[in-house]
Design a protein that fits this description.
The chain is an alpha+beta fold. Helices cover about 30% and strands about 35% of the residues. It has an 8-stranded mixed sheet. About 25% of the residues are buried.
């Protein structure tokens, strides 16, 4: 998908995107979490294998954003690894990726999306709420991660 008014292109992940996509996702997490533990994020070491759908956004030949889906059942999928390089945020790139993920999910027969993010990552929480996701629960896992779980029904 080319968005000429915004000068960025969104397309499916290709193996040649592996290192740049991994670097982008991990750097976004490192920005947010201190201490950051890359060993908890091994899924980005083999994107082609670990995600059902994975999109990348390019601007001037630079990979600037990512987003993926993991199919959970025949009718539900989890939105994962939404990440935009800091200098390219607030340009509509993440919104465009999320829109493409929703379209691809619908095409695959998915009628419900879920996602998890950090409870205190207010930019992410607000982003998902603005785009129709509703809060299901706050929780803390065995590692101490304090998260929020969202869902969105696709019509």
């Amino acid at each position: 998908v080319i968005n000429p008014s915004k000068n960025f292109t969104i397309r499916p992940f290709q193996p040649s995107d592996q290192e740049a996509a991994k670097r982008l996702v991990l750097s976004g997490l490192a920005e947010r979490f201190n201490p950051f533990k890359p060993e908890l994020n091994t899924d980005v070491s083999d994107i082609a294998k670990n995600f059902s759908v994975f999109l990348v956004a390019y601007l001037d030949n630079e990979l600037v954003a990512t987003g993926g889906l993991k199919f959970e059942t025949e009718t539900s999928a989890k939105v994962v690894r939404m990440s935009t390089a800091k200098v390219y945020r607030q340009r509509g790139i993440a919104r465009a990726i999320l829109g493409e993920l929703e379209s691809l999910a619908r095409f695959q027969g998915i009628n419900r999306l879920t996602l998890v993010t950090n409870r205190d990552w207010l930019e992410a929480v607000n982003f998902y709420q603005r785009h129709g996701f509703r809060l299901l629960e706050h929780y803390m896992d065995e590692t101490g991660f304090q998260g929020v779980r969202f869902s969105k029904d696709l019509l």
